[in-house]
Specification:
The chain is 84% helix and 0% strand. The chain contains 6 helices and no strands.
Length: 180
């Protein structure tokens, strides 16, 4: 497996861990248990920064254009489906944010959280099992290596040096608090 695809799949693992935390938060809210709204805001910020800005940014700005340039259709095929799902994911994140500010609305938050989790779990399966293997067949090794380097540059530019690790630590602390 190329370093580029390995990088994206590693990020998928972090996003799936985040979805487990989201499920635990939803479970507490559904049971009427208290949840620190500051944790919810931090979690939403994690999704916006890590899952969307960093990870989806790599896909939308670098991988998908490379696939389209190599002959994969932009609309109606796997790239078009992934792009549409990214848009839907942003809508769910917006719904979670709206349901948590200025005052937490547990039922609305839970509905948005469940929609987002279902979407992203299926989305990640499609990328890991269909799109990424197609990318590794379609793109030459040298181009995949160049994509990995571009991913590193994207991450440094978009979220900054060391921020990836900070976001993983945030995820770890939320996991300890809600999934432990």
């Amino acid at each position: 497996m190329s370093r580029a695809i390995d990088d994206l799949m590693h990020e998928h693992e972090a996003i799936l861990s985040a979805l487990n935390i989201l499920g635990a938060i939803d479970g507490k809210l559904s049971a009427g248990e208290p949840v620190d709204v500051g944790d919810i805001w931090a979690f939403i910020d994690f999704l916006k920064e890590f899952a969307d800005k960093c990870h989806h940014g790599k896909e939308e700005g670098l991988l998908f254009p490379a696939l389209v340039a190599a002959g994969m259709p932009e609309h109606g095929g796997p790239v078009g489906v992934m792009l549409a799902e990214h848009v839907q994911g942003r809508q769910w994140i917006g719904d979670m944010e709206a349901a948590s500010r200025p005052v937490l609305q547990p039922a609305a938050f839970s509905q948005a959280a469940r929609g987002y989790a279902q979407l992203l779990q299926a989305h990640i399966r499609k990328e890991n099992n269909i799109l990424f293997p197609m990318a590794e067949q379609l793109l030459p090794a040298a181009q995949l290596d160049a994509l990995f380097e571009a991913f590193e540059q994207h991450e440094a530019k978009v979220i900054g040096p060391g921020r990836h690790e900070q976001l993983h630590r945030l995820l770890g602390s939320l996991e300890a608090k809600y999934s432990g």
